[in-house]
Amino acid sequence: MNTNEQQQVVLTSRPSGIPQAEHFKVVRGPRPTLDDGEVLIRNIYLSVEPAMRGWVADEGNYSEPVAIGAVMRAFTTGQVVDSRHEDFVAGDYVTGLFGWQEYAAVDAATIIRKVSTERVPLSTSLGVLGLNGITAYFGLLESGQPVAGDTVVVSTAAGAVGSAVGQIAKLKGCKTIGITGGETKRRICLDEFGYDVAVDYKSAEFSEQLMQALDGGVDVYFDNTAGTISDAVLTRLNHKARVVICGTASISQWDPLPLGPRLNRQLLVARARIEGFLVLDYAQRYGEAVTELENWVAKGKLNYREDILDGIDQAPDSIAGLYRGDNMGKRLIQISQI
Amino acid sequence: MNTNEQQQVVLTSRPSGIPQAEHFKVVRGPRPTLDDGEVLIRNIYLSVEPAMRGWVADEGNYSEPVAIGAVMRAFTTGQVVDSRHEDFVAGDYVTGLFGWQEYAAVDAATIIRKVSTERVPLSTSLGVLGLNGITAYFGLLESGQPVAGDTVVVSTAAGAVGSAVGQIAKLKGCKTIGITGGETKRRICLDEFGYDVAVDYKSAEFSEQLMQALDGGVDVYFDNTAGTISDAVLTRLNHKARVVICGTASISQWDPLPLGPRLNRQLLVARARIEGFLVLDYAQRYGEAVTELENWVAKGKLNYREDILDGIDQAPDSIAGLYRGDNMGKRLIQISQI
Asked: Which terminus of chain A faces fewer neighbouring Cβ atoms within 10 Å, N or C?
């Protein structure tokens, strides 16, 4: 490939449900040049996340849909190779919304932060110290408001967000119950992420086991799935329970709105609360979360798993794989060396 | 009737839905005598309210079900006729949970408050200055958290709670949209309760008119109905909208749970909140609400309507009548003279 070129992953058609490999294509595009105030970044890790389904959907969402033909929107971490902004020099590691591509020239103001590799690996900047960990941090602490002694239930408990939620809840003195798919992930929940109880929603005894686990009721439910699993949890809300709606992984279509049990009576009797959470609302406070999360990781108090794919050609199918449950931990794609 | 006797309304069977006349009976019981620390009250006004459906239901609720054969639980206002407690003397007007009966001997500690008739009529103690007004006050201000300029939508907008919610929201500088049943109530919403817009859910053009009214979105939805009307309102939530679940008048059965659209996506996109509200949680702060509500009523800033039935024989059918929409304003039964 010509050094004026680079590989990029573009959205070629709009999926009606979960984005599949066929909706993306790896193409050759121009390598960008720099204007004043800009920084040229060589991407090392590309992030893959469930929220990408929403980013490419046509329906109303919290961000503009990625345009057909455009480079796929994605958080990435890379190294500065050239800078025309005084705050950055070649060699700095940085993270931001730089897209599924080899190189990006960005306005320095759009860089989320410089990343230090002194205490933790670079890849954590996209997972436990990236939006996933930050989502867990603010979603649990600000919306969920756990108090020591509370029972905190987490769906997708072994996932990039859920595993951090469960561990932060433990650090705050809560009892944690994780819901996950498969015996392997259930064991990981118990052994690596310290859940007090973990339940496998693929098990034939799931309903029974879940109800037994929820015998003392639920004070905080951190929900990444929606659907029938959540319906069951919501029948056990304690007085003044808080439900954090962080994701809806189990629902593949929102048009027309799928039906489920009406919750009014449960909310009224328990005086409980359900709240939608989006980490972008906390953008001004990311630093606060990263500092605390990095301390926990460096001290071994916060475990994480990563699932690192090799090479940009893995990108098109990578979102579909998340929804198939292929990954164990935060999914990344490494496209160049550190 | 013997002066040792009194009339009482007892629950004779447990309704599976809305309590009807056949579920109650007016019987003769003993007139109570006083123990130390007790107060004998002659009831003047009996309250009738939608929540009574829950009080007589067998299913889980926030209070013990009224027992079969027991006097119907109810808020009432009456006059002290004899007292063996130093804080009360004959002639005092008092309000509390004294039941659908002519006389009650109660522990003085269970009296909610003494009622003054200096500035406002006695009957207001059960409506706009009673649990209805207090519900509107804390439900709107504490759970709904309206800010000047917000759009506040109220269902059962002409009702005892709803009419106060709409007016308090106006006093706080909000735009108010009321949803009510029938053209008469719609006019009352506009003319007496000051709603900026009022929509009749019985009208053939309801959906269209509602969507037009909600064009600018909803910041606070104070919901007394649940069901399809609420479903429509919930499609228009603004960023950080607050939904107060105060009642569920449109749903007659909760077992099994009725189905409705899943709300996760709407809550997530808007980062909105739905919260169950029960006024009993604010029992320690009722005085604060009554003081402010009484000032507003006395100054003509807070209007109210009452629907006063005559005589205890009206009690058995009075709850069913509420659900039929027979009443215009707070429903009371007057059973003796002031």
From this structure: N
B275 contacts on A by Cβ (under 8 Å): 267, 271-274
Regarding whether B244 and B122 lie in a shared domain, the answer is no
Q: How far is B256 from chain A (nearest CA, A)?
A: 9
> Could you list the residue range(s) of the whole structural domain that residue A56 is in?
5-127+305-334
Q: Number of structural domains, chain B?
A: 2
Indicate whether A296 belongs to any domain: no
Domain CATH for B164: 3.40.50.720
B295 within some domain: no
Q: How many C-beta atoms surround the C-beta of residue B277 within 10 A?
A: 24
- Do residues B137 and B250 share a domain? yes
Chain B: nearest CA to A231, how far in angstroms? 10
- Inspect the interface and report whether the beta carbons of B274 and A263 lie closer than 8 Å: yes
Chain mean pLDDT for chain B: 95
Helix or strand holding residue B187 (H, E)? helix B183-191
| Pair B146, B152: CB distance under 8 Å | yes
State whether B138 and B109 are in the same domain.
no
With tokens 């009622």, the residue in question is: B115
Note the pTM of the prediction, 2 decimals: 0.90
CA A31 distance to own-chain centroid: 29
pLDDT tens digits, B215-254: 999 999 999 999 999 999 999 999 999 999 999 888 877 7
Instruction: Kindly report the nearest CA distance between residue B97 and chain A, in angstroms.
Output: 20
Contacts A254 to B, Cβ<8 Å:
265
DSSP-derived 3-state class of residue A164: helix
